[in-house]
Amino acid sequence: MASIYEQALGDDFNKLHPRIRQRFGFNSEAGIASIGYGVMDFISFSKWAALPLQLGTLRHIMFPQGGKRVPFRIENYAYRDSFGRETVTWNRQFKFPNKLRKFDATMIYSQQRNRIVDYLGNKQHLAVDLDVSVASSGGIQIRSGDQRFYEGWLQFRIPRSFTGAASVCEWYDDEQEQYKINVAVHNPLIGCVFQYQGSFQASFIAMPQSALPFDAKPLRQEDRE
What we know:
This protein is mostly beta strands. The chain has a single domain, classed as Lipocalin. Helices cover 9% and strands 51% of the residues. A ten-stranded antiparallel β-barrel has the order 1-2-3-4-5-6-7-9-10-11.
């Protein structure tokens, strides 16, 4: 079975750097997980977005805190969710001197939308369309599109002026033998909302479905894409 990223990229998946193909090429049948440790050279945020970012901390969606040389951990697990969809978890931790910040997401490949959908946070209230491409470095480039909010009977598309457009690039540096990542979220009215950049090493460990940690899956799963 192809991973959700291979489904999104098609033949272009083979243009990725071999180490990027390894990180983005496994699925729930592989019985492995990718665990990474590193340092973010910097993390920054806009003071104009401090309140919504603070609210986001309640659901593990970004946070209003910045710093330099921040220890970082990323956990990627692949599994079938309760609706039978191939899913990849992105659990990120940023260890500040006085606080452990979390930024969680789960991604699926939506046949309905013909693209990856990213559910932000630990309760899948926000669904974001993603466009995936191959960067010139052989890395993977991800850009966000439409965003939708789901809570019970309530559902609506969020106007772009009230959201942030995310750009993510992850690549492998052969000289430093490290994965590099750059994430930036921009809003058309206030500019850069949230950004971080750094590097990490990743290990691939045996992870049968029965051994997935409790926090590998969101607290609530949403079937609307």
